[in-house]
Design goal:
219 residues; alpha/beta; Rossmann fold; Arc Repressor Mutant, subunit A; 2 domains; five-stranded parallel sheet; four-stranded antiparallel sheet; 12 strands; 39% helix; 21% strand
Amino acid sequence: MAKILIVEDDQAINNLIFMNLDLVGYECKQVFDGKEALNILDNWRPDLILLDVMIPYIDGFSLMEQNKFNNIPVIFVTAKDNVSHRVKGLKLGADDYIVKPFESLELLARIEAVLRRSKPVERKYTIGKTMINLDEHVVTVNKKTVSLTNQEFELLEVLINNCNLALSREQLLDLAWGHDYFGDTRTVDVHITKIRKKLQLENYIKTIYKFGYRLEVQK
């Protein structure tokens, strides 16, 4: 998995970001000010930097203005939500800009999108006897191809991209079916049942009582 540097002076927020990224398998390091960020880059090159704007010693905008990150992709993570700050951040070369407070799923999605552009890799996964190629939309169980509907594949991709995170039925419905879908959450249960059976994932897709589901995999 990709390596991510978290530059955030609020320890609680820094730890929360670290916890969520670590759960889905990213290799992360935490720093709390601009000087620390530059020091760690002397010996470690991440694939992506999550950068707060208002950090001690050297703020995020100044780090970008001074071109300190040597073409490493950057996502600004900040409480500054006015248009002028967003425009400034993007003009300085940031790849994205997310405003606090934010949902962890949104942050994960933005990270995945930036990494896919900057560091394209084959998205292949093995879970038990199942092999999944997200880019080619190919799924095999015991080396035999298994046919999934488009909606089953969309739901499977959401579970993989957010592995080890508990997702509510409402979140799964929104992420896999989209904002315009007007069905109820029972359709999630139906599709989960089908995916479990087709792909022999009964021991991996866990039911979270009165909440939703979690795909549990080893990192």
